[in-house]
Specification:
Layout: H1 17-20, H2 26-36, H3 58-70, H4 76-85, H5 87-92, H6 100-109, H7 111-127, E1 135-144, E2 152-154, H8 155-178, H9 182-212, E3 216-218, E4 225-230, E5 233-245, E6 251-255, H10 265-276, E7 281-285, H11 292-300, E8 303-307, E9 326-328, E10 333-335, E11 341-342, E12 348-351, E13 354-360, H12 362-366, H13 371-374, E14 382-386, H14 389-401, H15 403-406, H16 408-423, H17 434-456, H18 459-473, H19 476-484, H20 489-510
Parallel strand pairs: 1-7, 7-8
Antiparallel strand pairs: 1-5, 2-3, 4-5, 5-6, 9-10, 10-11, 12-13, 13-14
Helix pairs in contact: 2-3, 2-18, 3-17, 4-6, 7-17, 8-9, 10-11, 11-14, 18-20, 19-20
The structure holds iron/sulfur cluster (SF4).
């Protein structure tokens, strides 16, 4: 029976690597994109040794990361291996073979530059009209950290360990009294010493935890936190915040460091507003972000929030919920269902990090017929009103009046996280520390945005638009300054640099 046959391995062949890489390959887009970036302005650290072998070019290593992260090649060893066996990578790096150590150090030492590269890219997308910044959705996804759950501690866990050790020590002390001979006593004594050494370790952790003022501590990656990955599954990881624009669902910004979304609304929204240089914008978020303080900050900065309202705790206890108490803004009092006035003494109390005012009318509550339906408190009903309640209510009204607009949120953000996790395998980070974890996030987001604009434009259109970037990114100030300050050879040097770059990219474009 005949089968399809491969080529003859022993036959010598003349081949061009360029012919082996497809015209619409990801490698070609990455190659062109990085060549267009103003690498020298992004702040990549370059270790120029005075003697010995010169370093690898920043652009080459950046190309390697952008190629790898999109193709499940994230570890430095996998990337180093790809430089030897992967034809596209060999083409991309022109046969260079950086060691795994060089690749790892480059990523570790350039967290700020990766962030800068991503932000440059976002600004460029805005100038290309692909991001309009009118509506932004913010959401988060969780990734596992390089820190096992057993190396993460909170006070409860430390207490549990110490209690177990104390019980063990007690058992050993009883056993030592019943021991028959010196050998047995010696053996038990060494066990007690071992338990005491473990106890010292936990005591030390307890002190570290108290000194840090945090609720938990991770011993391998100190920035990692115990987070709910999904559906009650807890692991040590990072909660990554991501802002996305509604026009083409492109990423705008990112951050990490918190265990949930409660305090991320205003920092993320203000960062996006600053980056895109917008006066006003709308932000869509789920109810995890609904916090009065942050909604108020956004409102003051001309950012309109559409954050899903949270149910008030009074709606869950079966008594009159707070909504049926009517608030009078002018007089700053509430009218209750029995038509009584609940007033405040004006004091602002701190309740679990929330600033609230109390409203009550003890006298009226004592003799009220509706009391059993209203409160179980022997001093009568009192209402806690956040000092940001007005901002919260305005936000709630906006969401309720524009349900279809709010529903855009899911369309704008969530599918990108699926691409990251299911298609590109970004369910865990390889790095330790917030800054380095964000390096991975920034590389991923550059890849995502680049891949996304490959779908928006045709391949040729994309390449031409990337070429336009050269002029956009080139620091024209250098030229102007050089004109103003002799010697003029600086001017010709910069002009020459610009021309060389445009020539090299034009050659790449016309050769395909
Ligand atoms: S218990 Fe107090 S607050 Fe509640 S309805 Fe009666 S008077 Fe009003």
């Amino acid at each position: 029976m005949d089968f399809i046959q491969g080529f003859d391995r022993d036959q010598l062949q003349m081949l061009s690597f360029d012919n082996l890489v497809k015209q619409d390959s990801w490698a070609r887009v990455v190659d062109l994109f990085v060549d267009c970036l103003p690498i020298e302005n992004l702040g990549f650290k370059h270790e120029h040794a005075k003697e010995g072998r010169p370093p690898y070019a920043t652009a080459d290593l950046l190309k390697l990361f952008l190629y790898g992260y999109k193709n499940h090649l994230r570890s430095s060893r996998k990337l180093a291996h790809a430089c030897e066996v992967n034809i596209e990578v060999i083409w991309l790096l022109k046969g260079l073979r950086p060691s795994a150590r060089k690749i790892a150090y480059f990523r570790k030492n350039n967290s700020k530059a990766f962030k800068q590269a991503f932000r440059y890219f976002v600004v460029m997308l805005k100038n290309m009209g692909l991001i309009d910044g009118q509506t932004i959705a913010i959401d988060s996804f969780k990734i596992r950290a390089q820190n096992a759950l057993k190396n993460n501690f909170n006070q409860k866990k430390i207490d549990r360990h110490i209690e177990y050790i104390d019980t063990k020590i007690q058992e050993y002390e009883q056993a030592i009294e019943l021991a028959d001979n010196e050998d047995q006593k010696q053996e038990i004594t060494s066990k007690i010493e071992y338990q005491n050494s473990k106890k010292d370790k936990y005591k030390h952790l307890e002190k570290q935890l108290q000194d840090s003022g945090e609720s938990q501590i991770s011993t391998i990656d100190s920035d990692a936190r115990s987070v709910v990955l999904h559906r009650n599954i807890i692991n040590v990881g990072y909660c990554v915040q991501a802002g996305c624009d509604s026009k083409h669902k492109l990423f705008i910004n990112n951050d990490t460091g918190t265990v949930n979304d409660t305090h991320s609304l205003s920092p993320m929204a203000l960062d996006a507003q600053k980056l895109l240089k917008l006066k006003t914008m709308n932000v869509l978020t789920d109810k995890g972000y609904t916090t009065g303080k942050h909604i108020e900050i956004c409102t003051k900065n001309n950012i309109t929030t559409y954050s899903s309202p949270k149910a008030h705790s009074s709606q869950k206890n079966g008594l009159f919920d707070m909504q049926i108490f009517e608030y009078n803004k002018k007089g700053d009092f509430y009218t209750c269902p029995a038509n009584k006035i609940l007033t405040t003494n004006g004091t602002v109390y701190n309740k679990a990090k929330h600033k609230v005012k109390h409203y009550k009318n003890r006298k009226a509550c004592v003799s009220c017929e509706l009391r059993s339906l209203c409160t179980k408190n022997k001093n009568g009903r009192f209402i806690e009103r956040s000092i940001y309640q007005e901002a919260v209510e305005n936000n709630e009204q906006r969401v309720n009046e524009n349900p279809n607009y709010y529903r855009l949120r899911q369309q704008i953000t969530e599918h990108q996280f699926g691409t990251f996790k299911r298609q590109w395998g970004f369910t865990y980070t390889l790095m330790k520390g917030k800054a380095n974890v964000l390096s991975e996030v920034n590389i991923m987001m550059i890849c995502y945005n680049l891949r996304r604009i490959m779908s928006i434009f045709s391949p040729n259109d994309l390449k031409c638009r990337l070429k336009d970037l050269v002029l956009y990114f080139f620091d024209l100030n250098k030229l102007f300054n050089a004109i103003l300050s002799p010697p003029y050879r600086n001017y010709f040097f910069h002009l020459n640099q610009l021309n060389t770059k445009i020539d090299s990219i034009t050659t790449k474009l016309t050769s395909k």
